[in-house]
Design a protein that fits this description.
The chain is of the alpha+beta class. The protein has helices spanning 17-51, 54-66, 74-84, 99-113, 123-129, 135-151, 153-165, and strands at 3-8, 11-16, 168-172, 177-181. The longest helix is centred in the first third of the chain and has 35 residues, at 17-51.
Length: 182
């Protein structure tokens, strides 16, 4: 019989391997007996979660995380920016260097990357929304818009109007556009 010793405070406790095996068997048998109960409880919880209305859950999550129930979605960003530049959202899939199309995509990329509307999209996901563009293109477009905001007053005012339509208050502090969610 092999002994395993363990120090607890100022006492030495000795365990035989047979005792440990016995304890493990008891735990295993207990778990096996209660597995059906555990599965039943898990099924009940799962069904309860599914029964919650999705819209109510989304509203609750929006309020909890963003403090605002009137939260705009990513599709709202696309729709509002496209409307602003008189472009149909289906045209975003086109590969073209047309100025209006390129600028619309750039503004959408900038708005999503800078969380004008709260989101957790990666740059790759943002690019896929506008014609399967590479993440580096999204980064470049965001930088182009940031620089244009800095140096072109008319463009900066357009961006501020778009942000206001999306429920984000914008403040120009002389060299950077600050976005505050209402």
């Amino acid at each position: 019989m092999e002994l395993i010793t363990e120090r607890k405070g100022n006492k030495d406790i000795a365990w035989s391997t047979e005792t440990l095996d016995s304890i493990m068997d008891s735990v295993f048998n207990y778990e096996l007996a209660h597995t059906r109960e555990a599965h039943q409880k898990m099924r009940e919880l799962y069904n309860e979660i599914l029964s919650i209305e999705v819209e109510k859950l989304q509203a609750k999550l929006r309020k909890e995380f963003y403090g605002n129930e009137n939260h705009f979605s990513v599709s709202d960003v696309i729709r509002i920016v496209c409307d602003f530049y008189n472009l149909h959202p289906k045209e975003l899939d086109k590969k073209s260097k047309e100025r209006n199309l390129a600028q619309t995509k750039q503004v959408i990329h900038w708005a999503l990357k800078n969380n004008v509307v709260k989101n957790s999209l990666t740059m790759k996901q943002i690019g896929s929304l506008t014609g399967f563009q590479h993440h580096a293109t999204v980064h470049h477009n965001e930088r182009v818009v940031r620089n244009r905001i800095k140096f072109e007053k008319r463009f900066r005012e357009e961006i501020m109007q778009i942000c206001n339509k999306l429920g984000a208050k914008t403040i120009w502090n002389g060299n950077r556009l600050e976005i505050k969610h209402q």
